[in-house]
Amino acid sequence: MKVSVIIDGQMVQIEQGAPIIDAAKKAGIFIPTLCYHEALKPYGSCCLCIVEVIQDGQRRLVTSCNFPAAVGMEIFTNTARVRQSRRMIVELLLVRCPDVPLLQTMAKQMGTGLSRFKTREANECILCGLCVRFCEEVVGVGAIGLANRGVDREVATPFKMASDVCIGCGSCTYICPTGCIKMVSDRKTPNLRSLKMGNCSLVPCPNSYQCETCQIEQEFFKDIKRVIAEFRSKGQ
Amino acid sequence: MDIEKVDRILEEHEYRHSAIIGIMQDVQDIENYLPEETLRYISDKLELNLTKIFDVATFYKAFSLVPRGRHTIKVCCGTACHLAGAARNLDQVERTLHIKAEETTDDRMFSIETVNCLGACALAPVVVVDEDYYDAVKPGKIEKILSYYRSESER
Ligand code: SF4
Ligand code: SF4
Ligand code: FES
């Protein structure tokens, strides 16, 4: 069912329950985001996409990437309160990640700069969870996850050991908005790619992608051959 | 940990993903910590991604991925206990056992933990060993309390 909502004075129709960022897209209004990606389920961790919503006479700030649209909703994407809150969010992210160009640019655009808060330990990860969700939802591997909590929360492989399921596709490198997962070639094993993030490394293939000589692969081929042979013999 | 024991726990929880915390609690009740192979096995059996399990295991302070001692000493360092001298008690426990907070003795007998409020401020400073609460603890009493658990374990 479609519902009409008013966004910055424009009336647009979107699916009921769809995130209100869809309405903004339809109306051609830009909303800054960090943890949102069309291919993934909404997550709502960065809060940068907040907008003001009036619903049932109540006015409040909500994250537009995961707040469901409903009948009679009025949305404001650029009020003083919204701008002020976004500025604060970027400022805080910048405290955590002072060296990330994207955040520096964002801060500049929003008219804020070096923060009055102290950096505890410079980090490049904003914990948006894009890499984790992409690896799980799109690649279907789930090699990385989030671990620990509070100020210690981080992206990590299980037990912080080289992952045995990562396929080295590099999607996480590609999708990371701050560029903190790097794909590096390993000098010792030239065909092996490692993905490095701080001191956690993902070493995908133990045999440098030499499938023809790989023990695991040979076993697999044998199995396949056997299955095909069985299938044929049955058919006759 | 015995595979059969793990299987029994999983069965009790009907292999539900939503029961992962309960499953881990049961494992920890038996082993005092969450062994890596056990978590890997659970991940296989439940068909639940290991990253998810690792997330939960590291999120809650109640879970430990390293072996803990048979007895856990929790020294409350909340506001009331702090004012009543919790720091000195903690010092004394650490000195007596020759380990620091969040560590375990070599013989796996004791682990020390600090907690931030046990909700028993009237009893400050509080020290809890396993399930036993000790109120108004003074550094001088620590040795006596610990020796009770030492001798109990020998029995
Ligand atoms: S490179 Fe590995 S960790 Fe990254 S998305 Fe691909 S499978 Fe997942
Ligand atoms: S590594 Fe990058 S994509 Fe992953 S959570 Fe951190 S900032 Fe986001
Ligand atoms: S984009 Fe909506 S919370 Fe991050």
From TrEMBL, chain A:
The keyword 4Fe-4S applies. SUPFAM superfamilies: 2Fe-2S ferredoxin-like, 4Fe-4S ferredoxins. One of its GO terms (molecular function) is 4 iron, 4 sulfur cluster binding. Keywords: 4Fe-4S, Iron, Iron-sulfur, Metal-binding, Repeat. CDD domains: fer2. It comes from the Bacteria. Residues 157-186 form the 4Fe-4S ferredoxin-type domain. Residues 1-81 form the 2Fe-2S ferredoxin-type domain. This is (2Fe-2S)-binding protein. It comes from Candidatus Desulfaltia bathyphila. The lineage of its organism: Bacteria, Pseudomonadati, Thermodesulfobacteriota, Desulfobacteria, Desulfobacterales.
UniProtKB/TrEMBL annotation, chain B:
SUPFAM superfamilies: Thioredoxin-like. GO terms for molecular function: 2 iron, 2 sulfur cluster binding; metal ion binding; oxidoreductase activity. [2Fe-2S] cluster binds at C76, C81, C117, C121. It comes from Candidatus Desulfaltia bathyphila. This is NAD(P)H-dependent oxidoreductase subunit E. PANTHER family: BIFURCATING [FEFE] HYDROGENASE GAMMA SUBUNIT (PTHR43342:SF1), NADH-QUINONE OXIDOREDUCTASE, E SUBUNIT (PTHR43342). Pfam families: 2Fe-2S_thioredx. Coiled coil: none annotated. Binds 1 [2Fe-2S] cluster. Keywords: 2Fe-2S, Iron, Iron-sulfur, Metal-binding. PROSITE patterns: COMPLEX1_24K. Belongs to the complex I 24 kDa subunit family. Its cofactor is [2Fe-2S] cluster.
